[in-house]
Design a protein that fits this description.
It is a single chain. The protein has 286 residues and is α/β, with parallel strands linked by helices. It folds into 2 domains: 140 residues, no CATH class; 122 residues. 28% of the residues lie in helices and 11% in strands. The protein has 9 helices and 9 strands. The chain has a 4-stranded parallel β-sheet. α6 links the parallel β8 and β9. The radius of gyration is 19 Å and the shape is globular. The N terminus is likely disordered.
Length: 286
């Protein structure tokens, strides 16, 4: 694997020869988690292992004192001086107004062209390399996902329709807003990534307002239909769809509507380009 090299690579505080700080958004609730945000450190860890960099430990980025890697998620508003962006995106409700071209931020890939245009408008160089690194997760964790699938098959009925809500939308499941029916299984975004992947893999159809529910379903080759979130702006979803060749993707507003809608077209995605953009030369001291 090769990567885009930067003249700053040897000088970034990101590289200390022992650890790699990866930013991961954590819900502000006790013992809460969101599988989509957990994908970032896992993907980075697996790629470092593939590159033979077994001496590097992936850690949660400290709040200050070191630059960090931003990979999976709508997290660029959390970028600071000398950070590295690989595959992350902009949220749409939290705009990175503080991010400027004098911060030394290095961008090797972004989620989609909307994020790229926003960064370019701030004077930050950004290559036309698109893709959410979560798309690489099933390939990097194939054995672990297969184990989770076997465990899931032994736990109860499979097939049918699953619905993966956005973390905020999950709070509305007890209401009649989505017109849930008894035969639709809810997959909580608070589950571990491999368990969510297993739930997707044993279904016949995936509905999701969770962006990474859509990403994992597509990475696993499953039919999937997006449902508009009541909390999240459309920006990050459109950014992902545009970055994977779907400018005409349409959201449903309820489960009944989604059940009558067509599946998303398959993503057009260059996994090799995204993997080659992985900034491994910036993560280790030469």
């Amino acid at each position: 694997m090769t990567s885009i090299r930067s003249p700053q690579a040897a000088h970034l505080p990101l590289a200390d020869g022992h650890t790699v700080p990866v930013y991961r958004w954590v819900p502000n609730r006790p013992n809460a988690s969101n599988f989509g945000d957990d994908l970032g450190p896992m993907v980075v860890r697996a790629l470092l292992q593939r590159l033979g960099k077994h001496h590097l430990q992936v850690i949660d980025a400290p709040p200050r004192g070191r630059s960090k890697l931003l990979s999976v998620g709508s997290i660029i508003h959390n970028a600071r001086k000398d950070d590295v962006v690989w595959g992350a995106g902009i949220n749409g409700k939290l705009w990175p107004t503080h991010v400027t071209d004098n911060m030394g931020i290095v961008v090797t890939a972004v989620r989609g062209p909307l994020t790229r245009e926003a960064l370019k408008a701030r004077g930050i160089a950004c290559p036309e390399i698109y893709g959410d690194p979560g798309l690489l997760f099933p390939r990097l964790y194939a054995a672990e996902i297969e184990q989770a699938i076997e465990k899931r098959r032994s736990a109860g009925p499979t097939g049918g329709v699953v619905y993966i809500p956005n973390l905020n939308d999950e709070r509305l499941i007890s209401t009649d807003h989505l017109a849930l029916t008894a035969d639709i299984r809810i997959v909580s975004p608070g589950q571990a990534p491999c368990d969510v992947a297993a739930e997707i893999a044993v279904a016949d159809l995936v509905l999701a307002s969770s962006l990474h529910g859509l990403v994992l379903a597509e990475a696993l080759g499953m039919p999937v239909r997006p449902i508009a979130s009541l909390f999240e702006p459309a920006f990050k979803y459109l950014d992902y769809f545009l970055g994977t060749g779907r400018p005409s993707a349409v959201f449903s507003t309820s489960i009944p509507q989604a059940l009558e809608s067509p599946d998303l077209a398959e993503p057009v995605f260059d996994s090799r380009a995204l993997m080659n953009a992985f900034p491994h030369d910036m993560l280790d001291i030469a």
